[in-house]
Each structure stands twice: as structure tokens, then as C-alpha cells.
Amino acid sequence: MSYPYQIRSLEEYRSAYQASVKDPEGFWAGIAANFQWRRPWDKVLEWNFTEPQVRWFSGAQLNITENCLDRHLAEKGDQPAIIWEPNDPEEHYRILSYKELHSKVCQFANVLKNNGLKKGDRVCIYMPMVPELAIAVLACARIGVIHSVVFGGFSAQSIADRIQDAQCSLVITSDGANRGNKQIPLKSVIDDALVQCPSVKRVIVLTRTRVPVSMIKGRDVWWEDEVRKVETQGNPPCPVEVMDAEDLLFILYTSGSTGKPKGVVHTCGGYMVFTNYSFVNVFQYKPGEIFFCTADIGWITGHSYIVYGPLSAGATSLMFEGIPTYPDAGRFWDIVDKYKVNILYTAPTAIRSLMGFGLDFVKNKDLSSLRVLGTVGEPINEEAWHWYHDNIGKGHCPIVDTWWQTETGGILISNLAGVTPEKPAHATLPLPGVQPVLVDEKGEELQGNNISGNLCIKFPWPSIIRTTYGDHERCRQTYFATYPNLYFTGDGALRDADGNYRITGRVDDVLNVSGHRIGTAEVENAINMHTGVVESAVVGYPHDIKGQGIYAYVIFNGTKTDDESIRKDIVQTVARIIGPIAKPDKIQLVSGLPKTRSGKIMRRILRKIAEGEFQNLGDTTTLLDPAVVEEIKGGRL
Ligand code: WTA
Q1: pTM over 0.90
Q2: Domains in the chain: boundaries
Q3: Which of 151, 376, 456 gets mutated to test ligand 1 (max ligand atoms within 8 A of its CB)?
Q4: CATH number for the 63-430 domain, one of 3.40.220.10, 3.40.50.2300, 3.40.50.12780, 3.90.380.10?
Q5: Atom of ligand 1 nearest to the CA of 402
Q6: What ipTM was predicted for this assembly?
Q7: DSSP 206-247
């Protein structure tokens, strides 16, 4: 299979872009024609950004797994679909051909059916990066069950919140996970979470680390036993559930500036078309190439560019269980060398961290198979860009700087590898079908170039968020209410003289720590749960490796031990309530917080102080207690 919609030159990009703006419905109908539908659409697009309501390909029917698996069997049945590299390089790798992946997905889908699941049910998946995670995801999609994957680094409380919100009836997990030289007891975390989750009737547990677990009678079953039952039934086929294009495919929780994480909802048809289109075009994937995305499937990047995008394109997707620094900081390069990876897609935070270990770990690794490099998740600074370009790409691999979000489902702004120009630290140009605008505070669209503003999108693309699960009003408020008739990204951006976008970062109270989205309000809530904490305020500050670090100002009047142990306890509390990824890097104990007379915390001031910028704090005389600013400045960590 080659891809008739793959853009091959700058001219082709320009004409595709123009066509997509002039006639979006015609444009996307032409691309969607390359997929397998059980029934064609009646209407390509219906939309308004006020309710909001967006429907792509309505009336059409399909199953995404038929497009990711079945349709490749005739020509690519023996080609690797998934290559899996274990955490421990001594353990044997695994290769699943399209045929094998198809049969394992059908088998596990039958397991899910035997356990009572049917179309529309919700399943929480909390698993390590093993092929069974991809199998579980696809098995859900095959029978119309909505998956909600939760990253393995989240705590019991975070899992419980997500399970309750989606009212999941089944959980798929494993005994434990390997991460570097650590083991994480996933099943026991699930046991803690489920104390609060009466909706869950069944837990399927995969064997991975063989750590002892407690299996609750009537609730918990082993993956392997369940699969054996299907085998004794003679491995019956598993016909796909025929889904409407706008039926829910999955829920993925992500942090916002207020409240608890929200369940971003993606649907079957549009998500399939756009993840495939963006995968094929941004990375310029050629059949037979090996694509290695280093993300975890627990995040949107893994959903779209380990599972659905590559597999729907019949690509070979490499999945890695471990971490970039185990057994040493050369691990990524060993993997590239071992499997002759052609396209490597990773995060700036990983690049910066590996940079810090020096070139010894890159030396003597054969990276000559690499053709395209990519980054995602946060702005990439020029130094990291050049290091990646020179030492990994050896000066000849284009780097795609891909900007997008959980809510956008796929890449919206990026250069197309080797086809449209790259520019260090710039995501550059929108993909066809994507219409970005920059607006000022009042929501006026800024015309022309060499400007900066808040980044919005003024027309729907096929994988735009449809709703936030169970709370449509929250979706409207968060994304469509700030500026009428625009989708607001929460990011600020510059547009240079040539129309290239440079994303400057969040303009709301969302932090981006090592490429992970964390809401300041969530971290504050977690800190405030610690006994003795009166109040707290959390801001981001520039961090050399993580991009942003977490700086917490805490008013504490509990039993006084020493400051250091108070800080440690608070960090532990945050790890328990949210997960280790949200641990504050710095905690400053203060006697008060700068507040306006109406009681609002002046985060702008706290942010400046955390950044070490004591000038231009603005007018502090109107604060309830101006003296507190001096105290905080004096105690900065
Ligand atoms: C940030 C990850 C600059 C941005 C796919 C966005 C980026 C948030 C880039 C979404 C990039 C993502 N350059 N910033 N190339 N890619 N971001 O939902 O602030 O985990 O709003 O999706 O990451 O994070 P999320």
C-alpha cells in the first residue's frame, strides 16, 4: 500500500492546504475514501463551535480495527506490526506480525465478551508498555468498548477518580511493571483504587513481573487463564462491532487549569482519518520503514502514533517498555541500531536529559538507518534541537517539531519531513485542514505576520475533541467560550515573517513538566490534603531538563518539625494523591500568599519570584498584605 494522499513537495503542500480551506468537505472526503467503511457517510461535516457540536462523516459506519488490522492481512500479513523491546535488554524482544496481532486482538476481544462486555461499556487500562497493552486497546475498539488508558505512573487516587468519572465496569492491568531497575506494583495500586470504585465488577491481570498479588475471588481473573478458555472454545473468530463514525472510541483524561482532570472524548471515524493522514504526511512514512515513538500509550502521543496512526497505515511500530537511561543513557541509540529504526519520535525533555550524559553514549552506535527525527510535547529549545540534529541525525535527518494536544487527537502544526522547511524551535506550518489564528486578549484576530497572541483554531479538523465525558458544558467552557466561534488551545504563539508558528507555552494555569501536562490546581489540592497545610500556590519555573519545574508556596501551621521533613512529607502526599510525575521540585514555606483585596492569589508575582525575576513585579501596593512579597522574595529557593 502506498499513500495517494502523501504530500511530496512544497507545491503539493501549498495546493493541498488551499484545497482544504476552500472546500474542507471535498478535501476530507477524498482522503477518507482511502479507508474501509461499512457504510458511506451522508454528510462529511456538520458543526458549530457554540454548543459546540462537531460531526464528521455522519451516517458512515466502520470499525477502526478493521482498518488497522484486517485490511492489511492480504498483503502484509507477515510484516511486523509491532516490534517490542523489553525493559531489560537481555530479555528476548518480540515481533508481532499483522496476522499475529490480528489473531491476538480477536482472541482478547472474545475474552472481553466472555466477561460480559458489550458496545458502549467503559474499560480502564492500567498496564506497562508491553504488546498486550496495544492488544487490549485494540480488542476494546474491535467490540465497541470505550477504553480509558491511565498512565502507569498515576496513583491509586488518580485512577479511582478516572474510573468513577467514566463508570468503568472492568479494569485491565498486570501484576507489575518494569521501569529501569525499579518495579512498580500495578495490581496493588489498582486494589487500592478499587476500594472506591463499586462500578468495577471484573479485573483482568496480565502476568509480567511475577510479583505476588492478591486476587479477589469473584472479581479478579488472570489474562492467561481467560485466553486459555477462548482457546478451548477453539478460538472462534471475532467479527467487528460496526460503529457509527461518531460513536465513542476512547476517553483520555488530561489536566486543565481548574478542577479534576477531564475525560477528552474522541470518536471513531474522524480520529482514524486524521491520525493516519498526519502520520503519513508529517513523518513521510514509507512502507516497510520502522517507526519508533518513545511515548507511553498512557498519553495521547502513544494512542495516536504508536497504535492507531501507524497501524491504520500498515506501518511497523516499535514499542519500548523501558526508560531512556536504563541500563545506560545510550539505550535509545542501542534500539535504533538493533532494529535499524528509520523514524524516531521523542520528547525534548528526553533529548535534554540525554544531552547531559555527553556524547560517549552516542559514539559507536550505528544510527545510519535514521531518516527522520521528531519531537513532541513541549517547545524544543535551539540548543537541544541542534544537538539532536547534529549528533543523532548526523546533519541529514529533517526534524519535525510537532505541535498538538490531547484534545486535537493528532498533529496540527508541524513541518512535513523533508517536504516543507524546518526551522529550529518552530513548529512551522499548519497541516492541510488546520486553520490556526492568533488573537489578542479581546479575541480579535491578529492579521499579518511578525505577531504574537493566543493560539486558536477557527475551523474543525476530523479529530477535534467532541466533548468532555459526562460534562459537555465543561468542554464548552474550557475550549469554546473564551473566544466566540474559536477553539482555544490554551497556548501562546508567535508567527514569524514567513508565517511559521512558534509555540511559546501555556497561557493558562497548566504546567508542562517533562512534556506531561499537570494542572496547578490539581497539585495545590493534593498539597492541601496534607495535615497542617493551610493553603498553597503552585507555579512553574524554567527547568533545564524538564522544561518546567513545579514550585510550590505553602503555608504550614501543623506540628513543627524541621522544614526539610515537612517538605518531604508534602512531596510524598502529592505522589500518593496524583503520582510521582506531579512531585514539586521546590517547596517554599511561607507565612502568607500575595492576594488581591478580593482574595485572589496573584500568581503572576509568584511566577516571577520562582523564576528569580524580582524586577517588574508590577504594582504590589494594592495587595492585601504587600509585606508578604518581601518575605517571599527573601526566602526564594
Ligand atoms: C505543549 C501532547 C511546543 C503545548 C501531544 C500543548 C508543545 C500541550 C508541542 C499539550 C510542541 C505539545 N511545541 N509545545 N511541538 N507539542 N506542546 O495534551 O503546550 O499532553 O498545549 O499533548 O503540550 O499536551 P498534551
Answers
A1: yes
A2: 63-430, 514-634
A3: 376
A4: 3.40.50.12780
A5: 15
A6: 0.99
A7: E-SS-------TTTEEEHHHHHHHHHHTT----PPPPEETTS
